[in-house]
Amino acid sequence: MAADLRHVLFRVGGERFALPLGSIREVVNPQPPFARVPRAPDSVRGAMNLRGRVVAVVDLAPLVGLPPHPSEGGQVVVLERDRRSLGFLIEGVLGVESLELSEPGTPGAVVRGVTTVKGLAVTVLDPDSLASQSKDLFGGR
Questions:
Q1: 55: domain range?
Q2: How many domains, the chain?
Q3: Nearest-CA neighbor of 64 among 138, 122, 115?
Q4: pLDDT tens profile 49-77
Q5: Per-residue confidence (pLDDT) for residue 88, from 0 to 100
């Protein structure tokens, strides 16, 4: 049975990706530089203040097998997971679309599957797997 869900489409590394709309708290235009996180890998860009809350910012590109995002520009997609906010650095939002997902992805995998929107390929990501992989970057903290 196919699920028709609204997704936020965005660009990372020149490719199109999507996350379920319900998993995204907000999208913000950050004010770099981010505060550096000690002993964190390069894919952890740092932390930002979002209206009084500290939000860790992770470069999404390496998590999906792409070269790191340039240090300047972009937006941050903020996910709310386990009462914690986590930001992913992206190039920019393309819009919101209803996507039909006919086959569920492998449990625990970052990629749920690939679909097309207006004739263009879009990789659909799993927010829980992204959050889990990102948590590992911080040593499981």
A1: 3-137
A2: 1
A3: 122
A4: 998 888 999 999 998 999 988 777 899 99
A5: 95
CA pair distance 7, 55, nearest whole angstrom: 22
Strands 24-28 and 44-50: unpaired
pTM of the complete model beyond 0.85: yes
Please report, as a single letter, which amino acid is at residue 30: P
Tokens of 2: 């196919």
Q: What string of DSSP letters covers 16-71?
A: EEEEEGGGEEEEE---SSPBPPTT--TTEEEEEEETTEEEEEEEHHHHTT-PPPPS
Taking 60 as the threshold, does the pLDDT of residue 115 lie above it? Answer: yes
For residue 94, the domain's CATH number is 2.40.50.180
